[in-house]
Amino acid sequence: MAEPIKIDKEALSFRDEVLNTPGGEHLLRCFACGTCTASCPVREVDENYNPRRIIRMTLLGMRDEVLRSDFIWHCSTCYTCSERCPQGVHLTSIMRALKNIAVREGIIPEAYRMQAKSIRAMGKIYEIEDFDNKKRARLGLPELEKKCPDLEAIIAQGELKDLK
Amino acid sequence: MKPYALFLGCTIPVRAQNYEISTRKVASALGLELIHIPNFTCCGYPISSLNEMTAEAMAARNLALAEKEGADICAICTACTGVLTEVGKKLAEDEKARAEINKRLKPAGLEYKGTVKVKHFARILHEEVGLKKIANAVTRQLKGLRIAPHYGCHYLKPHEIYEGFDSPEDPRTIDDIIAATGAESVSYMNKTRCCGGALLAVDENLALKITKEKLDQLKALNVDAIGLVCPFCSVMYESNQKKIETTFETSYNLPVLYLPQILGLAMGMDAKDLGFNMNRVKANAALQKAGINV
Fold first, then answer.
1. Which of A22, A71, A136, B190 could form a disulfide with A141 if both were Cys (CB 3.0 to 4.6 A apart)?
2. Inter-chain Cβ pairs, chain A and chain B, closer than 8 A
3. Interface predicted TM-score (ipTM)
């Protein structure tokens, strides 16, 4: 049998942490109706993914279980749940807040780490190589810059400065 | 009137040149000026999962570059449209947030005043060019073609940032534009369903299962093509179509067309000039139904 969940001070501090992260402000409005889960395209193909459960786990202070789960990274950001929530809970933003907190704890899926590195080094996820600019010229499309040092400077002074 | 700067984002310049070419051709033919800003970067969307403030600074940098050129932004990727619209709205309305972001833009020597309007090209077509002008520009009715519109989530949602230009649950702007070409815009149950694109890099199998759902539905409806307005939705439905066919032992052979490609054809442009040769699933058989030989 599963252990009972203790809601102590530490548990409540996770709730506050989410409430204080941009996007997490509406967490307490949830009355657990499940409209989010019923509307979710990810849930439709994977029953392990359940937005209502993620919100409950967060409210119950299950910090490690939430932050170390794969599922916070499985939100497709389609906003269907946010649009349909009768309580105006912005679930897509809450999922984003949870991901942002996980990143502060050093938890980043490899795919995101690589995307962030590319963006910092080149300004975009995919590199613009000489080949691409030549092909673009052939198609009559204007040339694009291959690097973007001023964006690197912006990222280098922000929260993701160590990600390179 | 302020010109629009065409915002390409990450995917279009290297993976969807057919979308860019057809957008530029159609815009120009309809009298819409698109200026080029070579140092636009990623909109910030992938970074928002990691750190919201860094993503906002990235979006603000792009907005500031357009502002410097005296331009608004015409985006053709729906995720770029979403991020730039949301951050643009926040920075236009919230002076404190703007001051905070401007501190972050300092190392780039930029400042954002909050004056840039962001719109998706399809919204501009519907809202500014107008259906009447589009219908008047149509010289070749695409009669007989049955096209299923795919809207893409961020084209419509979150609705709070989009000023009610279309309905998030029952959208019609892309249907309207398809119908203006003489083609039939086919309605179907999960019209607003997500393509799964955001999950492709994180969990490919999960992402493809989402993509497959819509392909299955459209196969049953026997449509001639999907018409869409986002390069990443196209990556899912077109570039990954073969992979889905192999993985799940099925077959579709369903052409995936960008809205400006459809519109350009109806405006009498050559398929070659609209980048149809870069479409992976060939649309030749479908186009022949409308009397167009490629």
1. A136
2. 177
3. 0.95
**Residue ranges covered by each domain of chain B:** 4-121, 131-289
Is A16 within the bounds of a domain? yes
E strand or H helix at B73: strand B72-75
Q: Which of A101, A57, A96 is nearest to A79 (CA)?
A: A96
- Tell me if residue B286 falls in helix, strand or coil: helix
Q: Which CATH code is given to the segment(s) B4-121? A: 1.20.1050.140
Same domain, A114 and A100: no
B194: chain A residues, CB-CB within 8 Å: 41, 76, 78, 80
Q: Which of B7, B8, B14 to mutate to test the interface with A (most CBs of A within 10 A)?
A: B14
- pLDDT band at residue A1 under the 50/70/90 scheme: low
A67: domain CATH number is 1.10.1060.10
**Residues A61, A81 share a domain:** yes
**What's the CATH architecture for B131-289?**
3-Layer(aba) Sandwich (3.40)
**In contact, B75 and B19? CB cutoff 8 Å:** no
Cα separation, B79 vs A72, in Å, equals: 19
pTM of the predicted structure, to 2 decimals: 0.97
pLDDT band at A105 (very low <50, low <70, confident <90, very high): very high
